[in-house]
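Q: How do we represent a protein-ligand complex in a form that can be generated cell by cell?
A: Start from the inputs.
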Amino acid sequence: MEDQDQIPEAKIITLGDSRVGKSSLIMKFIDNRFTINYLSTIGFDLKQKLIKLDNGQEVKLIIYDTAGQERFKSIATNYIKKANGILLIYDISEKITFNNIENWVEDIQDETEEKLPIVLVGNKCDLRDEKKEEKEEEKEEEKEEEKEEEKVGVTIEEGQNLAQKFHWKFYETSCKTGVNVEEAFKDLAGQVLEKILKKTGGKKMEQKIKKIDNLKPDQKKKKDCCL
Ligand code: GTP
Ligand code: MG
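Then emit the C-alpha cells for the protein with magnesium ion bound:
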C-alpha cells in the first residue's frame, strides 16, 4: 500500500431526485448492504472509502451524499462547487426522475463553469427484471395493464441517448443485486483522478519552466536539455 499522504483524494457527490437511491448506492458500495427501508437524507452525509482502480492506482474517495428533497436543494447544489466529479442518478421505474436530469444539469451549470466528470446512473434496474419475470406468468389482459405501467419507466436506450448527448459514461445499476454499483463509482473515480493528475502534472511542469527562466543565461543553456 502507498504512503497514506501520497494517495490522491477524489471528492465526488451524488445528485438526483429524492428516493432515486443515492444513499443506497453509497451503502452498497461502501458496506455491501441493501435495505428496502427508506430513510431520507437530511441535509447531506459524508462517507469515505479507499479504493483501488483497475490499473492498481489507489484513490481516497470522499463522497458527499446530498438530499434530493426540495427543502434541501440549496445545500445539495452548494456541494457541486466542492466536488471533483458527480454521480447523477435517476430511478428507471420513475420517468419523472429521468426527465428531471436536465434540471440537475442546469443546477450544475449554475454552480460551476468547470466541466466536471459526470457519470449518469439509472438505478433500480432490478425492478425492470422483476417486471419481465412477472410478465411471463401473466394472462393476456393483464399484459395490457403492464404495458401501460411500463410507459412510466425509462428504457436503457433512453438512458444511453441522454448520456451520449452530454458525453457522459452511463450505467444501469441495482443496489438490490449490486449490478454495476462498483463499476459506476470506479469509472467516476478514474475520470476524476485523470483530471487531477493532468492538473497537478501541468503545475509541476510550469514550476520547472519558471525555475529555468530564473537562471542566468549560461546556466540556462546547461539546463535546457533536461526540461
Ligand atoms: P433522499 O435521501 O431523499 O434524496 O433519497 P435517496 O436518493 O438517498 O434514496 P434512498 O437511497 O434512501 O432509497 C430510496 C428507496 O429506494 C429505499 O426504499 C431503497 O430501499 C430503494 N432502493 C434504492 N435503490 C434500489 C434498487 O436498486 N432497487 C430497488 N428495488 N430499490 C431500491
Ligand atoms: Mg439519501
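The chain has a mean pLDDT of 85. The longest strand covers residues 44-52.
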